[in-house]
Amino acid sequence: MASDNPKYQQGMAVRREVMGDEFVDRALNSASDFTQPMQDLATSNAWGEVWVREGISKKTRSLVTIATLAALKASNELKGHVRGALRNGCTVQEIQEVLLHSAVYCGMPSGLEAFRAADEVIQAWIADNP
């Protein structure tokens, strides 16, 4: 079982720290038998191997992840990671600058989609954190 794996356990702790319990619980509780292996892989590998590494801060990892997801036009994942970046101490301006910088290199359609997705999360964040 994945939850017995130390990488999974460490990854789950970091995932909850960055993304928040509500987000993680929603992802895990909505997983089907088909999608559960992907949740396990993401938790063990992305969170339990890469996000736990030293060398760059979680804040920097958040900004790199935002740029990557913007390039991939992965709006749903981008929304989660924008919220995670805000939880990690990234400012709205830093997120905006990363998205602007990314748009130049990955194209305006990707940039526009990323800005729309990020704005939705940022506006909700501002409303919840006056």
TrEMBL record:
This is 4-carboxymuconolactone decarboxylase. SUPFAM superfamilies: AhpD-like. It comes from Marisediminitalea aggregata. Its EC number is 4.1.1.44. Transmembrane segments: none annotated. InterPro entries: 4CMD/NDH-1_regulator, AhpD-like, CMD-like, Decarb_PcaC. Residues 39-120 form the Carboxymuconolactone decarboxylase-like domain. One of its GO terms (molecular function) is peroxiredoxin activity. It comes from the Bacteria.
